[in-house]
Amino acid sequence: MTEERRGKRPLFSVAVPFYNEQENLRALYERLCRVVGGVENCDFELLFVDDGSTDASLEIVRALAAQDARVRYLSFSRNFGKEIALSAAIDHARGDGAIFMDADLQHPPELIPKLIEGWFEGYDDVYAQRRTRGGESAFKKLTAKLYYHVLARSTRIPIQMDAGDFRLLSARALAVLRRMPEHQRNMKSLYSWIGFRKKAVPVDQEPRLHGASKFGFFRLLNLALDGITSFTTAPLRLATILGALSAAVALLSFCWFLIRTAVWGNPVPGYPSLFCGILFFGGVQLLGLGVIGEYLGRVFMETKGRPLYVIAESNVTDETPDETLPERKEARHD
């Protein structure tokens, strides 16, 4: 595989999903041009995916496409979310591999040659592994570390720690991801699920060049819940175990009160113990129902059969990538 890859001139798609990044796009484009211009024996295209931006981001990308034939873009009809934008990039990436990165320049484009070198070595998933997380608060660093550990402990599939979306995926890895039509998506989990040979490339994440992150606490919490519930049934098992333990505690408590009354003649405690017991078991039941509801809600979303995203504007032709697209749905309104 390695010799076969080194004997050809590959084409890579540099895929950049973005939402309201008008202050960063030109700087990103200039740095990308400098980097890819210095990579020998490789061809590149720049694929921008606009996730329904409301600022001048799309106008900037249109202007870049008018002056550079390597620039291709998709623009959604509304904001569908970063995971869906990444899925659209996977659907429309061409060539021998795709490099995914953020538009805020926290992912340094200068790392791209090292990712490509890993591809030449025969790896299908060459991912940037963060040594430092510049521009992030201590709270976000702590919660990110906790999330990765919880996800790793709740599944048997190896999870790449401290790895984000900044990575290079080979053509065959992209082909497998295209065959995954689910709507409730957590791409970091899917990268691990598909397997293949993986290589980590250390990176120091840079602070955002301009603006603030679009991911607040609640959006990150929702992303974490999506990652756990779409990748493992551990929460359901936890609810089952908690219910069994609660039932055991209730049974032991009943036996204790019965023996205590029969032997020592002590009256059974009244309202305080009853009140605490009702609150405890009611809380356990509601927790179990909430966990079941999370999974049931995801089943409901999957059964609707709606398109994964809607493209309002694009300069991408309808030519299909090397591997035929699966039954995943998209809607076009060019």
Structure description:
By secondary structure, the protein is α/β, with parallel strands linked by helices. The protein folds into 2 domains: 2-216 and 306-332, Spore Coat Polysaccharide Biosynthesis Protein SpsA, Chain A (Alpha-Beta Complex), CATH 3.90.550; 234-303. 47% of the residues lie in helices and 17% in strands. The chain has 11 helices and 9 strands. It has helices spanning 2-6, 25-37, 57-67, 82-92, 112-120, 138-153, 171-178, 187-193, 217-229, 234-264, 271-303, and strands at 11-18, 43-50, 71-76, 97-100, 125-133, 163-170, 198-205, 310-314, 331-332. Strands 7-5-6-4-1-2-3-8-9 form a 9-stranded mixed sheet, sandwiched between helices. The protein is elongated and about 90 Å long.
Order of SSEs: HEHEHEHEHEHEHHEHHHEE
CATH architecture of the largest domain: Alpha-Beta Complex
Sheet-strand content, in percent, reads: 15-25%
Total helical segments: 11
Shape: elongated
Q: What is the total domain count?
A: 2
Output the structural class.
alpha/beta
**How far is the first residue's CA from the last residue's CA?**
40 Å
Stretches with pLDDT under 50, minimum 5 residues: 320-327
How can the largest sheet be summarized? 9 strands, mixed
Question: Considering the protein shown, what is the CATH homologous superfamily of the largest domain?
Answer: Spore Coat Polysaccharide Biosynthesis Protein SpsA, Chain A
Residues in helix, %: 40-55%
| Order of strands across the main sheet | 7-5-6-4-1-2-3-8-9
Q: Work out the number of β strands.
A: 9
